[in-house]
Amino acid sequence: MSDTAISHYLESTRDRPTREDLKFAVSRIDGARAAIDCGCGAGADISYLLDSGFRVYAFDVDDQALSVCQGRFKGSKNVVLSKASFETFDYPAASLVVADASLFFCPPDHFNTVWDNIFECLLPGGIFCGSLLGREDTMAQAGDNPSVFWSHVSAFDQSEVEGLLKPYEVLRFKVHRSGGKTAGGVPHDWHIFQIVARKPAS
Ligand SMILES: C[S@@+](CC[C@H](N)C(=O)[O-])C[C@H]1O[C@@H](n2cnc3c(N)ncnc32)[C@H](O)[C@@H]1O
Predict the structure, then answer these.
(1) Pairwise CA distance, residues 77 & 81, whole Å
(2) Is ligand 1 within 6 A of the CB of residue 21?
(3) Of 85, 29, 33, the residue nearest 62 (C-alpha)
(4) Which of 134, 161, 189, 192 lies in disulfide reach of 176, CB 3.0 to 4.6 Å?
(5) Residues 154-175: tens digit of each pLDDT
(6) CA 108 to CA 153: how far, in whole Å?
């Protein structure tokens, strides 16, 4: 993805509405309010979590994303920003892990370790709220595709996602499929699993 495209993406998502799944996940958190935002982009979810009383540990691999977040959360003691990738981030204990449209870009060789790290960092009763890429999404198709944002993706079919969710109690699960054009006018088929799942309390 070019610097200009990233900059446009960050600008257009900076103040996007909060997804219902995240509002729902937050409503189900009891006790400690510590969240991790994996691949935080321009920080729309950080802002919502901060307003909801969370201390937020957020990371992104992209310099521009980090710079936008450093600007908007400057001086906030409850936002801890790191430049890191899914596989290098040191996951602190958290009651909520958010990964919206970001684990799509986890290198496949690292995905299982990253997925285990997310489960391990969650406190008992903690919640994962995020999305995984379906194999039928345009981004998951082999070949040189102009809608590919990053060079590698981790994509799954439904039975694989169900396997990944076995250790969790699934609170919400939706398969999103649609076709259309991206904001840049490129034809795209979307295939996304939207997940809210709780780590058992014991
Ligand atoms: C589609 S954006 C989603 C941003 C944000 N979660 C949101 O919903 O607005 C994907 C984000 O994942 C980040 N990303 C891509 N590969 C990553 C990696 N290996 N480790 C951490 N973040 C990554 C990108 O820089 C980008 O900010």
Answers:
(1) 11
(2) no
(3) 85
(4) 192
(5) 999 999 999 999 999 999 999 9
(6) 7
Residue nearest to atom 13 of ligand 1 (CA): 39
Write the DSSP symbol of residue 118: H
Q: Which residue has the tokens 């996602």?
A: 161
Residues 6+ apart with CB under 8 A from 122: 93, 94, 95, 97, 128, 199
CA 28–ligand 1 middle distance (angstroms)? 25
Residue 86 Cβ inside 6 Å of ligand 1? The answer reads yes
pTM of this structure: 0.95
Domains and CATH numbers, the chain: 3-198 (3.40.50.150)
Q: What is the pLDDT of residue 55?
A: 98
* Residue identifier of the C-alpha nearest atom 24 of ligand 1: 39
Minimum-distance ligand 1 atom for the alpha carbon of 85? 20
